[in-house]
Design brief:
The protein has about 120 residues and is α+β, with helices and mostly antiparallel strands. It is about 45% helix and about 25% strand. It has one domain.
Length: about 120
């Protein structure tokens, strides 16, 4: 009687476990980066809702972002790195930055973020 055994060999299982482990490590390293990006976008949206239509100055927007970044514990981008561009009827507030996270050896994971809101004057 001939039996056909099917399944994963020990070496195949170990290779699969290594790849899954590397993927899981990358996810674990990148989750805090994306959570902080969520805090940055939330801070910009709250600044928009606070100042929309109220003719704020650029310094008032920076002070608001500074307070919000301190409260939200944002460290990957400084509030002065936010670009505020004066448009004819609005301010465009843009957070464009990249976050590098150490992965393994001399390998880093890089996430690039770019988010902007428009505050009407």
């Amino acid at each position: 009687m001939k039996r056909n055994e099917q399944g994963v060999t020990l070496i195949g299982f170990l290779i699969m476990a290594v790849f899954l482990g590397l993927f899981a490590l990358a996810v674990i390293k990148l989750v805090p980066v994306y959570l902080e990006y969520g805090k940055v976008t939330s801070s910009l949206e709250k600044a928009k809702s606070e100042f929309d239509g109220k003719s704020p100055s650029i310094e008032e927007i920076y002070r608001s972002l500074e307070r919000r970044f301190d409260i939200e514990d944002v460290h990957r981008i400084h509030y002065r790195d936010i670009k505020i561009k004066r448009e004819p009827r609005a301010y465009t507030v843009q957070a464009a930055y990249e976050a590098r996270v150490y992965y393994i050896g001399n390998i880093y994971l890089v996430a690039v973020f770019d988010f902007s809101v428009e505050i009407q004057r």
